[in-house]
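Worked example 3 (structure in, sequence out).
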């Protein structure tokens, strides 16, 4: 059965602290993963979403499966009999700074292959959502991403590619070598303003970094239909053949920025599935991101459709 959105990658357990890890204390266990975050966000906004991946034959893997199913996400997953589910420690070092420590090398999630993806794509999807994180996990995972992007584009599926650069997984040059060619298959490219040069076609003979508008123009010339730029507290922009559209961020009290980019992506893609215009897609992405930063957790605070208007209420008010 065709789903609205299909994505795949590694989901881990995230052990969150409320202070320095070296001081010990209570840890809260949650599910973390850029792709599953987006799947949950899209499902909460009224669409069907599916996630493909692999978890370990351990309690952590069981926890992930239960959480995703509980959020209405359809699963195309395998349980690896020998490798463990990846783990991430997230330290709230100060009120303004969090640090992530990954224990994912050789994890079950890194074994995702084109066989996993092929079976999921056989079921059909309107949007295939990919991230640069999965491509950095292992040679098998990179092959799966490249295969999925090429196949989906050939089948007329909308391909969404979020750069989501992680410096602990690969270098900028390694990312550029993989993500640049991958963008040729993308319909929608999503990137932070400091990630665009990792994916835009290079200026031949020039080592100079491109500005945002130039990078977006090169991606559009390469066949991308929409270049969506996340600017954090400065809002977001969308570049299309018709020009550039910008929107400011929504003023909320920020308590946790982790997962904000994934929330924005979920909001934007959900609006794309709804068939609304660019301005409304941008607004919904910003709204979802605002919910994410004003609540704790990777995805726990993501809104449902009937909650999107809640942030229109006066700050500090109680809806009765």
């Amino acid at each position: 059965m065709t789903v609205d959105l299909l994505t795949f990658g590694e989901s881990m357990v995230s052990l969150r602290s409320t202070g320095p890890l070296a001081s010990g204390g209570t840890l809260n266990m949650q599910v973390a993963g850029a792709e599953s975050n987006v799947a949950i966000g899209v499902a909460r906004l009224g669409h069907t979403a599916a996630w493909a991946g692999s978890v370990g034959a351990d309690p952590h893997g069981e926890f992930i499966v239960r959480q995703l199913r509980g959020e209405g996400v359809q699963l195309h997953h395998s349980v690896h009999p020998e490798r463990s589910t990846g783990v991430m420690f997230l330290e709230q070092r100060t009120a303004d700074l969090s640090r992530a420590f990954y224990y994912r090398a050789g994890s079950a999630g890194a074994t995702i292959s084109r066989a996993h993806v092929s079976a999921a794509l056989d079921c059909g999807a309107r949007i295939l959502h990919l991230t640069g994180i999965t491509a950095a996990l292992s040679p098998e995972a990179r092959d799966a991403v490249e295969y999925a992007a090429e196949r989906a584009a050939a089948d007329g599926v909308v391909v969404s590619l979020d750069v989501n650069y992680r410096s602990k997984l690969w270098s900028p040059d390694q990312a550029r070598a993989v993500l640049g060619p991958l963008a040729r298959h993308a319909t929608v490219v999503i990137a932070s303003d400091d990630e665009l040069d990792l994916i835009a076609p290079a200026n031949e003979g020039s080592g100079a970094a491109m500005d945002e508008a130039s990078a977006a123009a090169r991606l559009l010339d390469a066949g991308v239909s929409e270049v969506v730029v996340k600017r954090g507290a400065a809002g977001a922009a969308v570049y299309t053949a018709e020009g550039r559209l910008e929107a400011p961020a929504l003023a909320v009290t920020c308590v946790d920025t982790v997962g904000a980019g994934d929330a924005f992506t979920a909001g934007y893609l959900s609006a794309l599935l709804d068939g609304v215009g660019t301005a409304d897609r941008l607004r919904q992405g910003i709204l979802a991101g605002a919910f994410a930063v004003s609540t704790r957790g990777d995805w726990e605070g993501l809104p449902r459709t009937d909650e999107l208007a809640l942030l229109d209420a006066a700050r500090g008010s109680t809806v009765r």
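Notes: Residues 139-154 form the longest helix (16 residues). The chain has nine helices and 13 strands.
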